[in-house]
Amino acid sequence: CDADGRNIKHTQIIDELRSYTLMGGKIFVGADSMYRNTNCVFACTIALHDSRQNIAKYYFKKERDNTSKYKDLAAKINREVDLAVNAALEIREKIPESDIEIHVDIGKKKKNSTRFLVNQIRGWVTGLGFDCCIKPNSWASSDIADWHTR
Question: Could you read off the pLDDT of 77-86 as tens digits, one per residue?
Answer without folding.
Answer: 999 999 999 9
